[in-house]
Amino acid sequence: MININKKIEKYKIQKMLEKDYSDGNWESMIDKVAELMVESYSEGYSIAPSRSLRKNLMYEVDMFSTRFIMMKKIFDDRELIETLNIIKKDTDNLTDVMLAEYGPTYRTNYHIANVHAAIFTPLLEKINKNLNKHSLRFDLSIYDSPWYSEYGEYDQHSPHIHDQKQVDLMRVEDAYKYSGIINLSNFGSVDFINPNPSSFFEKQVTVNSEYGTVLLFPSNVWHYVRPHGLRNKTRATFSFNGLLRGLDKHANINNM
Fold it and tell me: Could you tell me which residue, 91 or 116, shows the higher pLDDT?
């Protein structure tokens, strides 16, 4: 006969929850609590009465997150320098961008990026070589080519997104609009704004530039660049848009 007078203490349940959710796996917490109750009764226990449990049944749980992918040390210096030098030979064609009074201020080859499109192929192959290990693939956008940007001491780029409006995701299977940055400097940064203003997480995240690092992020995430403030220094990046495929097949990505 089951003895329902035995009680499982509240702190024991809390310990069990901490163990299960300490790694950030907060899916279905309420279901987990219900499961613990069923298990306690099946073993002859009942949940100990608690005024706090009876009066406060509200839980705050972040149910969604935003996935970024970072890759380090996948290029050798020669590859990046050669690509950069080819573009820098056309320095006269770099445009000083100033779209509005408080708009972007930096230099870029975006308006002629298609001229240099082919030289990015080896870099993309390296990126996909690493992504393929995790059943992922990045397809460059057919609507714009990778481009180069450089930021001087006071240059900045106001909040923006890479919307890729030409792409209708309803007609693309297993693909998500993503953008990428290849850092060519060890200073400066880019700030990403949390797309969920009600989230418990930070309202924005700053990613510092590290030479050779690749950062892939959802194209609809707002981001901006602040002046790095270093005299006679130029922060440089390659940027690109496209489709990231395979995320649905691989939920966890580590050691890229």
Answer: 116
Query: CA-to-CA distance for 216 and 70, rounded, in angstroms?
Result: 6
How, if at all, do strands 95-98 and 105-108 pair? Answer: antiparallel
* Chain segment 171-227, per-residue pLDDT in tens: 677 789 999 999 999 999 999 999 888 877 788 999 999 999 999 999 999 999 999
State CA 57 to chain mean position distance: 33
**Cβ-count burial 98-135 (b if 16+ within 10 Å, e if not):** eeeeeebbbbbbbeebeebeeebeebbeebeebbeebe
CA-CA distance, 235 to 188, in Å (whole number)? 6
SS3 182: strand
Per-residue pLDDT at 53 exceeds 90: no
Strands 45-47 and 6-8: parallel
Instruction: Enumerate residues 6+ apart whose C-beta is below 8 A from 74.
Output: 126, 127, 129, 130, 212, 214
Has residue 41 got a pLDDT over 50? no
What distance lies between CA 200 and its chain's CA centroid?
Answer: 17
Interior angle at CA 32, CA 30 and CA 35, nearest 5: 115
d(Cα 252, Cα 135) in Å, to the nearest integer?
11
pLDDT tens-digit map of 8-36:
555 565 666 565 555 555 445 555 655 65
**Any residues with CB less than 8 A from the CB of 131 and at least 6 apart, and which?**
69, 137, 138, 246, 256
